[in-house]
Amino acid sequence: MSENSGGVTYYINHHLTHWSIGEGFWTLHADSLIVSVLLGSLFCWIFWMASRKATEGVPGGLQNFVEMMIDGMNKITKDTFHGHNPLAAPLALTLFCWIFLMNLMDLVPIDLAPETMHAMGWDYFKILPTVNMNVTFGLSLSVLALIIIYSIHYKGVKGYLHELFFHPFNHWSLAPFNFALNFVELFAKPVSLSLRLFGNLYAAELIFILIATLTLSYGIFEVFTSIGGIALLIGQIILATIWAIFHILVIPLQAFIFMMLSLVYLSMAAESH
Amino acid sequence: MEINATLLGQMIAFGIFVWFTMKFVWPNVSKAMQARQDNISDGLAAAERGRKELDTANEKADEILQEARKKAGEIIDKANKRSNEVIEEAKSTARAEGERQLAAAQAQIEQELNQAKSELREQVVTLAITGATRVLEREVDAKAHNDLLSDLAKQL
C-alpha cells in the first residue's frame, strides 16, 4: 500500500512538474513557452489567413468566423470602453483566443503529452500552459503595464500621480493613506486576474490527474481481468467524461472573464474619476 | 511554483501577438466588413429610391390614364354633337331639296298647263275658223282677219 501511494505521489508530482531549462530566476519552463507560443502562433496564423483573403463579397466559412469574432470584440469593447481606442479590441481578441486555446489543452488526455515526450527523451512535459503561474502572471502583468500606460496616456503623469495620492480623500494629510489604498487596488487587479485563471485550471488539471490515479495501482492487464479493475475503469471513464464536459464550459468562461476584466480595468484607467 | 523568466518570455510573446493582431489581422477584416456594410446600405438606399420612383411612376401613369379617359370622353361628346349636327344638316338639306323639287314639279305642271291651254286655244281658234268658214261657205281672208282672230284667241 505504501508503495502504491508512493506511486501515486510520484505520478502526480511528475504530471505537475515542468520541463525546465536553466537555473534560478533565469529558468525557462520550456514546455509552457513552446506550447503557448505555438498556440498563439496558430491563432495569429488562422486569423491572418482569413484577413489576407478577406473580401467584401460573400464571406466564406473561415472569414465568417473571424468576422464574427472581430465584430463581437468590437461590440464588447464599444460597450465597455468609452471613447475610441485602436488597441483595446485587438487586445481583447488576442487575450480571449489565446487563453481559450491554452485552456483547451486541459482536454488533451493527461498522459498523452508526458508519455509521448518521455518516449522521445524528455523527462517532463506539461502541455497545459495556464497551470503555470508564470504564464498567467505574464498576461496579467502585461495588462497591469497597459493599465498604467493608459492612465498616463489619458490623464498625463501629473493627473495620474494626483489621482494616486489624492483620490479617495482629497486632503494632503491623507496622501500616504490614499497612495497605499490605490497601490493595493492597482496590484490586486493583476493578482486576481492571474490567480483566478491559474486556480481554476490548476484545480481542474489536478482533478483530472486524481481521476487518472484511480486505476494506477493496476497493471494494464489487471485492469481488464479483475472485477475491481473493471469497476474502477468504468468509474474513471464516467468521472473523467463528466469533468471534461463541465470543462467545456469552464474553458471559454475563464478566457472570457480574463478578457472582460482586462477591458474593464483598462476602461477604468482611461476614465478620470 | 516559482516565478522565473518564463514570465518575461510570456509577456514578450503576448506583446508580439497583440501587435500582430492589431497590425495584420484587424485592418483587413475591418476594411472588408466596412466595405460590405457600405455596399449593403447603398443597396438598401437604392432599393428605397427605386421604390419611390416606382410610386411616382405609378402616380404619373394614373394621372395620364385619367387625362386620357377625360379626353376620350370629350372626343365622344364632340363626336355625338357632330353626328347630331350632321343629321340635322342632312335633314334640313333633304327638306330643302324636297321643297325645291316640289316647287320645280309645280312649276313644270304650271308650264305644261299653260302650254296645254295655249294649244287648246289655238285649236279652238282653228276650230272656230274652220267652223266659221263652213258657216260662211266662203273663204275668209285669213290675212285680212288675222288681227281680229288673234284678238279673239286672247280672249279665250
What would you say this structure looks like, in words?
The complex is a heterodimer of chains A (273) and B (156). Helices cover 74% and strands 1% of the residues of chain A. Chain A contains 9 helices and 2 strands; from the N terminus they run H-E-E-H-H-H-H-H-H-H-H. A two-stranded antiparallel sheet of chain A has the order 1-2. The longest helix of chain A has 44 residues, at 227-270. Chain B is mainly alpha-helical. Chain B is rod-shaped. The mean pLDDT of chain B is 88. At the A-B interface, strand 2, helix 2, helix 3, helix 4 and helix 6 of A face helix 1 of B.
What would the keywords be for this entry?
heterodimer; A: 273 residues; mainly alpha; two-stranded antiparallel sheet; 74% helix; globular; B: 156 residues; 0% strand
Produce a short descriptive summary.
The complex is a heterodimer of chains A (273) and B (156). With 273 residues, chain A is mainly α.
Number of strands of chain A: 2
- The proportion of strand residues of chain A reads under 5%
Low-confidence stretches of chain A: none
Mean pLDDT of chain B: 88
Gap between N and C termini of chain A: 62 Å
Low-confidence stretches of chain B: none
How would you sum up the major sheet of chain B? none
Instruction: Please state the average pLDDT score of chain A.
Output: 84
Biggest sheet: strand arrangement of chain A: 1-2
Count of DSSP H/I helices of chain A: 9
User: Quick one: how many beta strands of chain B?
Assistant: 0
Cα-based radius of gyration of chain B, to the nearest Å: 61 Å
Strand composition percent of chain B: under 5%
Residues in helices of chain B, as a percent range: over 70%
Q: Could you state the order of secondary-structure elements of chain A as H and E? A: HEEHHHHHHHH
Shape field of chain A: globular
What is the SS-derived class of chain A? Answer: mainly alpha
